[in-house]
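Teaching assistant here, posting this on the class forum so everyone can see the example we discussed in section. The complex has two components, and the goal was to see what a joint structure prediction looks like when all of them are supplied at once.
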Amino acid sequence: MGLFDIKGYLQENKQLIDEALDGLLPAQDVFPPQVHKAMRHCLFAGGKRLRPILACAACRAVGGDPGVVVQEACALELIHTYSLIHDDLPAMDDDDYRRGCLSTHKVFGEAIAILAGDGLLTEAFAVLTRGFRNTPHAPEKLLEVIHLVAEACGSRGLIGGQVVDLESEQKVIEKDLLEYIHNNKTGKLLTASVLLGALLGGADRDKTGRLEQYGRAIGLAFQITDDILDILGSTEELGKKVGSDLDKGKATYPGIMGMDASKKMQQKLYEDACSALEGFDEKAEPLRAIAKLIVERTK
Amino acid sequence: MGLFDIKGYLQENKQLIDEALDGLLPAQDVFPPQVHKAMRHCLFAGGKRLRPILACAACRAVGGDPGVVVQEACALELIHTYSLIHDDLPAMDDDDYRRGCLSTHKVFGEAIAILAGDGLLTEAFAVLTRGFRNTPHAPEKLLEVIHLVAEACGSRGLIGGQVVDLESEQKVIEKDLLEYIHNNKTGKLLTASVLLGALLGGADRDKTGRLEQYGRAIGLAFQITDDILDILGSTEELGKKVGSDLDKGKATYPGIMGMDASKKMQQKLYEDACSALEGFDEKAEPLRAIAKLIVERTK
């Protein structure tokens, strides 16, 4: 099991996703070019493609063909990128850098950045339904996936998390509220990514439930790792400024629980993720390796 | 035919849509309340509910039961409202008033206004798929509707129109470009509204095509009327400042073609809309009356 080449797997899948994204998004000279350039700027500035890769890995884990969920998986990356563009705006987190490049509003101005974000979010739903007449998926399954994605990134999901995150700046907050922020801002879309792959891969109810547990565990683990890296990482590796959470008076797990307890929680969540995958065969190896990577990553 | 009570029809349908919107959107005390209050602020500040009403009227025109498309029709109003909130932002059109009330960012601040817009857009797709297991619509039809709505309001639709509108401020532009702006910023979502009702109402290909023509005609007529009213209307009736297009150096039909030619074009588009409805029976009366109202409205 330890021999599974996760680096190769991630690299290969990232390339697959990047190519698919390039084909799905309007070319940068499509009229009006300014907004299409902006939509592509942040999307192709970098990014690990974690959400689409999780979707493909979950599809494989339940015995499905990951190739047939690539298009739907790309919608997740479009949504993630829209959220980054909007989060970076001056009215929000006011970040000048993202994925190691100037953020979208620094290059294209605020108006185009807002519209590029809107465009990516809208495009996600166009992509989820593109070619719906020839899709290998049952139409009911696609509707289920669209619904769960929309709920995950709505005002009681990703957007709600960002709202509370903004409102909590410069405030002392409890662990419960921090968990709400992380669970909504990051966790729900990661979980939706896993579920998208599971549902379209034909998972039964039991496996879907287990993968949901897996998604929740790695979602929170991912964010705790982010918080830890914001303190211990390097700007060069992260592609954004280290200590920026502290600068903004943002609450973090190490800030609330201390570094040791945060690392313990990270480890516990990793174990939860692995437990959720008990009963899955070697096809779930990428999911196991991703969970490990999430807590061990340095950027 | 002239006896059709369009005022009563609109009033009744507006009430139906308002009640449905209220039931579909998270209550304003749902956590986090700030964003849900903001989402409701602009949505319930007023609005004619033209898009949902068009969807219901188109459904009726093809012999469907308008009651069964109310939920999907509401998604159109959520999208329209998100576009208003984002358009009004300081980085965009910078408007302080909307629907006769303070615009969302004036009341809740820019960050929450951006997020409330994002929330409404996302909620639209959640609403289009809510209860998908018990919907009276065929899943393929719903997917088709979701796709056409997403295309209509994407970067080659509504968002593209706003991009070009912003870029054209203080510039002399040709009639073609103005038509691009209006067709994309307003026309495509209005057309999608008509098509949503037609498709879910069970229209055949011929009727769908004719309703698409109708949608295009009233879409452009609507915007020309807007331009005319911006010059001739009163602030009180419009709920926004008269002459604001001129103030911003925005191109308008009267500005490019003159008032007389604009009024002639308005009349021609009304006739096109009516021609498109030839072959429809009295069930299309609301659509005919709406076309008339669009060119005769004073607010």
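For the discussion questions: The first helix of chain B runs from residue 6 to 24. Chain B has a mean pLDDT of 94. Think about how each of these relates to the inputs above.
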